[in-house]
Design brief:
heterodimer, A: alpha/beta, ABC transporter transmembrane region fold, Rossmann fold, 4 domains, six-stranded mixed β-sheet, four-stranded antiparallel β-sheet, B: alpha+beta, Jelly Rolls, 8 strands, globular
Chain lengths: 839, 170
């Protein structure tokens, strides 16, 4: 059955498909329960009549008991059965919706890229999550609700007819009237509903667009414009929703009104019949209560009718929207070609967008396997479109692309994915670790079975090699070194301390210019006053340095060491400097990086300085003193250049440092691990532990020297791979926002490299790289890929194209020059002009 | 007991920076508060011999004031690199890059151990926003620079190179 549905697109399935497919057994059980419930519902009516007519009238106590017990049993059974129906209904509904969502999602992912140019992610989200849920609810109801209620209605009606034909016929006459009026109202509600679905879709698209472009919006201050656009849609939505609700309630009201007429007829007509002895009183009571009971199934039927209308509109609107054939059949019957060698032959290639825009026209060129082509040209000249066509991301509309002599359109997407690697200019990085991102392309190619099970093992050496090739290894090592290792990992700690010692011994002299090492008896200028006093790192991960100024014990210690007063004074001086620099200015956040006074405390500082004109520091409020102290404790001479630390205070802080361990251990033993060359600094990064000091600012080259020295030692200690592994676990943040543009591009290139494709397409893939990384990739291309992998690269920077075998210059969708760099330069044509300007 | 901090106050780094900036024509006319802020965010950088500060094509976005040592401006020609100009103690370079994005046409190299004071474009831009008069002042300073530079060139340049001049009539 599943096989069959593949042929049919999910978007073309009818709403009723979901009701029965895969639910047949459940629906049968449901049917059985429904029949039982109908019976259980009719019984109380008959019992009612018998209790009044037989028992009460004839004073038959036994009969009364028996009838009452049957009555209560029937009601209980009806309740229990109703619960079962609801459960089954919900079950079927959720199952159907789940299936619907999954299939539609699968379908949406395969839609052609062009589709997503005009579709906002928010719209897809709304469709999948909101619009389909009514359809799901309906799928659960579709069988059970109408059946239960129609059967109930019929049996009640039959029972009434059996009781008294005339009266029954009179009361039942109401229903045809309702059946006539409701659809008329419903039709108008539907029109409003359709409009509402479309409008909510545009509104969510609008929201999504604004939010994704929030940078632009804020930069240009386009708040009014965005509010206007949104407001317009929201207003229209409001209007249409009111209209829709009006009709929905009109239906309910009309229904209630007409059905409410039932008892009226029973009283008038039934009363008349009772008076004339043509109807028993008991029967009339049964009639009245049946009337009431008729109302429930009827109301449910009307509700159902409304849900059906609503669901089918939403369903149809949603499915119609996504109803286009998948971009490329993912699996074709044809088997993937054996090992592509990478010859590319393009003849008269053209590409036209659906709206008639001609992006490529008549491009012709060919590349032998392993040749490298640089595509250059003005923006909008079709460079990206060309390689996206070769990557089978868009299907070309004319001409031919042949890979090893086989027409691209007849090669399955799967084979293309395997043999052609594509690196985008702004590659998408997933919210995950570096490793996951690296393995993404590989994972996707793995057979489906493996998805959930053990992930494919790619050996670490290969990952490291690829990272080195693209120049990301240094960054990964950095991430690894910046990690804090678990406090229980004693083995690693021992290794790291060993490396620390060797770094000092082997590279200490080379590094001492750019690294300020920790030494017990000298002031550490790259650390704050607080760090200089404590001179240790906390063993508790919950310890937070910014709470120190409030800590009573710590204040006690400062007082004891006669440091409190001088530090408060230091705080005042720093506050004065900051106020002097920043008062009257706003949005200077960038500058506050070098100020010990945070930008949000500037006003408070100003106030304190005002107070100090007439008062002593002791006269300040507690919180004000805390603020001054926190500023002083944060003061780091090498960073906060507004003041140099007085020598006398330095000496006193160093004295306090000597006293602190003993004093603190008396109060909270083991809270800190005091800096000592042989002790690990818990809750500090691996790098900090190896360096055992801090890098001085203003040495741009320091990082590289340190990296080299540390890498050297890590290799010797056989710890490099461990750090690399830790580094690959680095979480890149939301869509990679913790990575720089260059790092993202390198990661994307590495991702493709792991796949080892025969043809590599690069769309300005190195545009965000600095010179050094750029030449590294360049080197990789010339030494490793030449003659092995075919490369087609859209290149922005013209200084790197000399190394390519061929250059294509594009203009307005055409190739206007094609040849070797030398020839084209000699020719003094378009390429020459691009590089040297018009002469 | 209290420390007599105000008396024993050594000259802070910011103060030293400020004195240096005030001696430079490009900065000296700026509002006092602006120049003080620049002195505050200016950073020292140290380069060792032969260290490359920026390369051709980099948008370095910084002005450099040489505190000690010497910097060489280099231009690559074919495979060979030539020294175009030398900058010594007290000299300022890179002011144009403070005003906007500009890929370097030269590379800059330390010819011995050198310390510089740097001002970054992002900081300078912030100052321009806070003190709008800055833009006009730096433009004037720049104009003066260019004028003098071209006048010098015109007197020294050989006849063959005269057709390369004319920056002042741009």
């Amino acid at each position: 059955m599943i096989k069959k549905s593949v042929a049919h697109r999910v978007t073309q399935k009818s709403l009723f498909h979901w009701v029965f497919t895969g639910n047949l057994k459940l629906q049968c059980i449901l049917l059985l329960i429904i029949i039982l419930i109908v019976v259980a519902r009719v019984i109380p009516l008959e019992m009612q009549k018998r209790i009044i007519n037989d028992s009460i009238a004839l004073k038959n106590l036994d009969g009364l008991l028996v009838y009452s017990i049957i009555y209560i049993a029937a009601i209980t059974a009806a309740g229990a059965l109703k619960l079962a129906i609801n459960y089954l209904q919900a079950f079927i509904g959720e199952k159907a919706m789940n299936q619907m969502r999954k299939e539609l999602y699968e379908h949406i992912l395969t839609l052609p890229l062009g589709f997503f140019r005009t579709t906002q992610p928010g719209m897809v989200v709304a469709s999948l999550m909101t619009e389909l849920s009514t359809a799901g609810t309906f799928a659960g109801m579709a069988f059970a609700v109408p059946l239960t209620n129609i059967l109930t209605l019929l049996s009640f009606a039959t029972y009434l007819l059996w009781l008294n034909t005339k009266l029954a016929a009179a009361t039942l006459l109401i229903y045809p009237v309702v059946v006539f009026i409701v659809p008329i109202l419903q039709k108008r509600a539907n029109t409003a509903n359709k409009r509402r679905v479309d409008l909510s879709r545009s509104t969510s698209s609008q929201i999504a667009e604004t939010i994704s472009g929030i940078n632009e919006v804020q930069v240009h201050g386009a708040f009014a414009e965005e509010n206007r656009k949104f407001g317009q849609l929201a207003d229209e939505l409001k209007k249409i929703r009111i209209r829709w609700s009006l009709f929905r309630f009109a239906i309910k009201t009309a229904n209630n009104y007409f059905v409410g007429l039932g008892p009226f007829i029973v009283f008038i007509f039934g009363g008349y019949l009772v008076m004339h002895g043509q109807l028993e009183l008991g029967a009339m009571v049964a009639f009245l209560s049946a009337q009431e009971k008729l109302f429930d199934p009827w109301k449910e039927l009307i509700d159902f009718y409304q849900t059906y209308q609503d669901a089918s509109i939403r369903y149809k609107r949603t499915m119609d929207y996504f109803d286009s054939p998948p971009g490329f059949p993912l699996l074709t019957s044809e088997i993937a070609p054996t090992m592509v060698s990478g010859n590319v032959d393009i003849r008269e290639l053209s590409f036209q967008t659906p709206d008639g825009h001609r992006l490529l026209s008549g491009m012709t060129f060919s590349l032998k396997a392993g040749e490298h082509l640089a595509v250059v040209g003005f923006s909008g000249s079709g460079k990206s479109t060309l390689i996206q066509c070769i990557g089978k991301m868009y299907s070309y509309t004319g001409g031919s692309i042949k890979i090893d002599g086989i027409e691209l359109s007849s090669i399955s997407k799967k084979a293309v994915i395997q043999d052609i690697g594509y690196v985008a200019q702004n590659p998408f990085i997933f919210t995950s670790t570096i490793q996951e991102n690296l393995l993404y392309a590989r994972r996707a190619m793995a057979p489906k079975k493996n998805w959930k099970g053990e992930s494919e093992v790619i050996d670490l050496d290969r990952l490291i090699l690829v990272l080195q090739q693209v120049g990301l290894f240094v960054d990964v090592m950095r991430f690894g070194l910046d990690t804090i290792i678990d406090v229980n990992d004693k083995k690693s700690m021992a290794i790291i301390i060993r490396i620390r010692g060797r770094l000092r011994a082997n590279f200490g002299n080379k590094l001492k210019k750019s690294v300020e090492f920790y030494t017990m008896d000298s002031y550490h200028h790259n650390s704050s006053v607080a760090e200089n006093i404590i001179f240790g790192s906390s063993t508790k991960s919950t310890f937070s340095p910014h709470l120190i100024p409030e800590n009573k014990n710590f204040l006690l210690f400062l007082r004891l060491e006669k440091l409190l007063q001088p530090l408060l004074q230091l705080g005042v001086i720093l506050a004065r400097e900051a106020v002097d620099l920043f008062s009257g200015l706003d949005s200077m956040d960038l500058f506050f990086a070098k100020s010990p006074v945070p930008s949000d405390k500037l006003n408070e500082c100003e106030k304190i300085l005002g107070t100090l004109k007439s008062k002593e520091i002791e006269g300040l409020a507690k919180t004000e003193q805390t603020l001054l102290l926190s500023i002083a404790l944060k003061f780091t001479p090498s960073l906060h250049t507004m003041l140099s630390l007085p020598a006398e205070l330095q000496t006193r802080i160093l004295q306090a440092r000597q006293q602190f361990p003993e004093w603190c251990n008396k109060r909270v033993p083991g809270l800190f691990n005091y800096y000592s060359e042989t002790r690990y600094l818990p809750n500090q990064s691996i790098l900090n532990n190896i360096l055992f000091g801090k890098i001085r600012p203003g040495f741009p080259a320091a990082q590289e020297v340190i990296n080299q020295s540390i890498t050297h030692l890590l290799i010797e200690e056989d710890y490099l791979e461990t750090v690399a592994e830790i580094g690959m676990e680095f979480h890149v943040g939301n869509m990679g926002d913790k990575l720089s543009g260059g790092q993202r591009q390198k990661l994307a290139i590495a991702r493709v490299l792991l796949k080892q494709p025969k043809i590599i397409l690069m769309d300005e893939a190195t545009s965000a790289l600095d010179n050094k990384s750029q030449s590294r990739i360049q080197r990789l291309m010339t030494t490793r890929w030449k003659d092995k992998r075919t490369v087609i690269a859209v290149v922005h920077r013209l200084d790197i194209i000399a190394d390519f075998d061929k250059i294509a210059v594009t203009k307005a969708g055409k190739i206007i020059e094609f040849g070797t760099y030398k020839d084209l330069i000699a020719q003094k044509g378009a390429l020459h002009e691009l590089i040297y300007g018009r002469q | 007991m209290s420390l007599s901090m105000d008396d024993s106050k050594q000259v802070s780094e910011m103060q030293q920076n400020l004195e240096m900036l005030q001696e430079l024509a490009f900065f000296s006319d700026l509002p006092v508060k602006a120049i003080k802020l620049l002195a505050f965010v200016a950073e020292h950088q140290h380069f060792s011999k032969n260290e490359i500060i920026f390369e051709e094509g980099d948008d370095y976005g910084k002005a450099y004031i040489i505190i000690s040592g010497q910097l060489n401006l280099m231009k690559k020609n074919q495979k060979q690199e030539n020294v175009v100009q030398q900058f010594g103690k007290g000299e300022l370079l890179g002011t144009l890059s403070l005003l906007g994005v500009m890929p370097a046409l030269f590379s800059l190299k330390a010819c011995c151990d050198t310390t510089v004071l740097t001002i970054a474009r992002e900081h300078f831009t912030k100052i321009q926003v806070q003190f709008p008069e800055t833009t006009a002042i730096s433009l004037k300073a720049l104009l003066r620079e260019v004028y003098q530079w071209e006048r010098k060139n015109l007197t020294h340049a050989k006849l063959c190179c005269l057709n390369q001049t004319g920056a002042t009539i741009l």
